Amino acid sequence: MQGRGNKSSGDNFHAAPNIDHSQEFVRKDLKEWLLWLRKEIGYDGWRLDFVRGFWGGYVKDYLDASEPYFAVGEYWDSLSYTYGEMDHNQDAHRQRIVDWINDTSGTAGAFDVTTKGILHTTLERCEYWRLSDEKGKPPGVVGWWPSRAVTFIENHDTGSTQGHWRFPGGKEMQGYAYILTHPGTPAVFYDHIFSQYQSEIAALISLRNRNKIHCRSIVSIETTSLYTYFEHQDNIRIFQR
């Protein structure tokens, strides 16, 4: 019998078959399931895995139907390298993430993998010049679309038991000092909350709240050598130490 499946609207994932989101009955079933999770189970937000696998327009359809409080997609691919060295300009990488957010009509945020990768190399090699792009803005998605950038330094794929891309050991709190004093929506890794970093992370979260730093706060980068942060209301200024 001839199947009804259409060509995939995204990349293939070797560990699982594609779902054909172009089929109306598939989207109907998914929306009913999401509404059940929202109304009956009590979920109020979605983390969308491997969103490279299907068109972001379908995500908008699902979010419009389920009306979550928050939604974030994982668009994870490789940053740009030349001869094994990370390039300073990562515009193409963050553009792909921004393109996906655009496909959702801005209804979903995305994990700022660009910032994660740049912070990783910056702190591992003390190359702080990487923390400013060619226009003097933060070099990740947070520099282009901060209200939709979900910043992080570690997650269940990169750290924990899988360890595919661990953040440099001993540099975790420097990473959190960055994302918790910048715009975007910072995500703290579960493993770190229940670790020796708990009190330091709590202090940074308190600082963020006390100074009313939010996802649309403005950043002014004064230098990208050794740095500390001064925050006031909606503005963040970075000064040399």
UniProtKB/TrEMBL annotation:
Q: Which CDD domains match?
A: AmyAc_arch_bac_plant_AmyA
Provide the family line: Belongs to the glycosyl hydrolase 13 family.
Record PANTHER family = ALPHA-AMYLASE
Name it. 1,4-alpha-D-glucan glucanohydrolase
Report the source organism: Populus alba x Populus x berolinensis
Q: Give the taxonomic lineage as stored in the record.
A: Eukaryota, Viridiplantae, Streptophyta, Embryophyta, Tracheophyta
